[in-house]
UniProtKB/TrEMBL annotation:
Entry-linked NCBIfam families: GGDEF
Signal peptide (UniProt feature, chain positions): 1-18
Record's keyword terms, sorted: Membrane, Signal, Transmembrane, Transmembrane helix
Species of the source: Marinobacter fuscus
Cofactor(s) for this UniProt protein: Mg(2+)
InterPro entries xrefs: 7TMR_DISM_rcpt_extracell_dom1, 7TMR_DISM_rcpt_extracell_dom2, Diguanylate_Cyclase, GGDEF_dom, Nucleotide_cyclase, Rev_trsase/Diguanyl_cyclase
SMART domains: GGDEF
The protein's name in its UniProt record: diguanylate cyclase
Length: 558
């Protein structure tokens, strides 16, 4: 008998817990965290008369039941001990996440009001306010009003209830502007724009993949946290399809890893592991096009697998010495920690909180910022390499002493300029130059003085020739200039300027040693229709020989 009494007392206690009644007293009502009853209806067979007769478990006003609840009923009982009727508003801020909501208002076990919102046709529904369903109801003086809320999910069961008076209802709608989410989205869109510009400037795949990753993240964040609902007043099946971004995000991240770490070329084992993960993600994406709800059920588990695989591959590549992986691991650690918390939240394993519910968005943004740093660092490395390559090319094309072009570069470029002159019908001339009695300079003052003389002559060539002229040292004391657009008369004038400039220049070869030299020059206009540059140089050499035999320090024209 005693055991029976204990069981009866336990049953009464359970029923009391499962059906809590809230007193709404005072002039102001703003309830955000309060006990409610919950009933899972996976068979989707309960209607309102049947649901009201069930026993409800005790939960709070922001429960997370994970993916194991197809349809839920929530019971909220409100008692008014006052002397006046309370006009209140039920807010469902997470309504944009579900397929349909039905609300039944009961007083004295009689149905006094009801509403149903199908999210496929919610844009014009008067109860829908920027993603939040607002249902007005009343609690008569001295009586109890019971609200039954039927929530039909897509994949995860989202439910959040708040109760306000008129003043606080308006305030809640005015302040629920998702400014934090707008800030995250704005940061990521700025990164998308920046990397889009980088891609068009460099055509590097990592910039494109990173931009696509960011775009997927923006879509997911804006969708999951209500920014799309608020900004575009869009809901239902078509909008829910945007949840495919939960697959495209990791797909583009894995592709980014393959490109940025060059796994195909240098890390074959890691590349194959990433390929296997990529195949799973693509399969999930393809399945989602046909059954998005079914595809999202294992999405959290697939996200956990993705985090384990990408982390393991990154650590493996780090141990093999890749310089960028340590930065990637820092950002990916943020992603893993915050997303790991979010996965536990979505599965209903931990209590709701701002950090838990916003973990994915925070993790995505932190990783996105780190990946931007990686791209910037990689650009710097590539620019350094390109600068080094340009310097090597410059060294290969120039004379190390005078910094003029060398013979090989001159011959390659002069043929191209000759072809251009032939096409345009423009004149083209060549000039050869030799330092007079240069051997005597070396014998008298030494080779150091000779080098100083060569540098001085080179400076005069650059000073008195035109910017478009191609100036080169062929070897020893011999120099050559190609003059595009100059006939033999203009070339002769240029040669005369150079001759006078060298003649008037004194080279400081020691404390009290000043060396003066002269040059002899030969000029020839190139017959581009039937003559090569080499043939024109031979004629200019003959003119140079004539200048030397004629007394040196003069210009002769072929």
């Amino acid at each position: 008998m005693a055991a029976v009494c204990v069981l009866l007392l336990w049953a009464v206690s359970l029923t009391a817990q499962a059906a809590p009644t809230l007193d709404v007293t005072g002039d102001e009502v703003q309830l955000r965290d309060f006990p409610v009853g919950v009933l899972i209806d996976n068979a989707q067979s309960l209607d309102y008369p049947a649901a009201r007769e069930q026993t409800y478990a005790l939960t709070d006003s922001t429960p997370n039941l994970g993916t194991g609840a197809s349809v839920t009923w929530h019971r909220i009982a409100l008692n008014n001990p006052g002397a006046e009727t309370k006009a209140l508003f039920l807010h469902l801020p997470a309504a944009f996440q579900v397929r349909a909501i039905a609300i039944y208002e009961e007083q004295s076990r009689r149905l006094v009001g009801q509403a149903r919102v199908d999210l496929n046709n919610a844009s014009d529904n008067p109860l829908m306010h920027r993603g939040t369903i607002v249902y007005p109801f009343s609690v008569p003086a001295g009586k109890t009003t019971v609200l039954y809320v039927r929530s039909q999910l897509y994949s995860h069961q989202w439910f959040e209830a708040e109760i306000y008076d008129d003043k606080h209802s308006r305030q809640a709608l005015a302040t629920g502007a998702h400014l934090d989410i707008a800030l995250l989205v704005g940061m990521m869109l700025a990164l998308v724009f920046y990397n889009g510009l980088l891609y068009f400037a460099t055509s590097r795949k990592e910039n494109l993949l990173y931009s696509l990753y960011l775009i997927s993240g923006v879509i997911w964040i804006a969708l999951s946290y209500g920014l799309i609902a608020q900004a575009f007043n869009a809901y239902g099946d078509a909008v829910f399809m945007l949840n495919l971004s939960v697959f495209t995000m990791p797909i583009f991240l894995v592709l980014f890893m393959m490109v940025i770490f060059e796994t195909r070329e240098f890390y074959v084992t890691e590349h194959r592991i990433l390929q296997g993960l990529l195949a799973l993600l693509v399969a999930g994406l393809c399945y989602g096009f046909f059954d998005i709800e079914g595809a999202l059920v294992p999405a959290s588990s697939l996200a956990a697998l993705m985090m384990v695989v990408t982390s393991s591959v990154s650590v493996s590549i780090l141990r093999k010495g890749h310089p960028l992986v340590k930065f990637f691991l820092v950002g990916h650690s943020f992603f893993i920690v915050f997303n790991g918390v979010a996965v536990l939240f979505y599965k209903g394993l931990i209590e709701p909180s701002y950090l838990n519910s916003h973990g994915v968005g925070i993790g995505i943004v932190l990783e996105a910022i780190t990946l931007a740093f990686i791209i910037s660092y990689r650009i710097k490395v590539l620019e350094d390499i390109r600068t080094q390559q340009d310097e090597l090319k410059r060294q290969a094309a120039t004379d190390p002493l005078t910094q003029l072009y060398n013979r090989r570069y001159f011959m390659a470029q002069s043929e191209a300029l000759a072809e251009q002159a032939k096409t345009l019908g423009a004149p083209l001339s060549v000039m050869t130059l030799d330092i007079d009695h240069f051997k005597a300079v070396n014998d008298t003052y030494g080779h150091h003085a000779g080098d100083l003389v060569l540098k001085a002559v080179a400076r005069n060539l650059q000073k008195f020739s035109r910017d478009r002229d191609l100036v080169a040292r062929f070897g020893g004391e011999e120099f050559v200039i190609l003059l595009p657009g100059a006939d033999h008369t203009e070339a002769e004038g240029c040669a005369e300027r150079i001759r006078r400039g060298v003649e008037s220049d004194a080279v400081q070869a020691g404390d009290e040693v000043r060396v003066r030299v002269t040059v002899s020059l030969g000029v020839a206009q190139v017959d581009t229709a039937k003559e090569s540059i080499e043939a024109a140089l031979n004629r200019a050499d003959k003119a140079l020989y004539a200048a030397k035999t004629g007394g040196r320090n003069r210009v002769c024209v072929a």
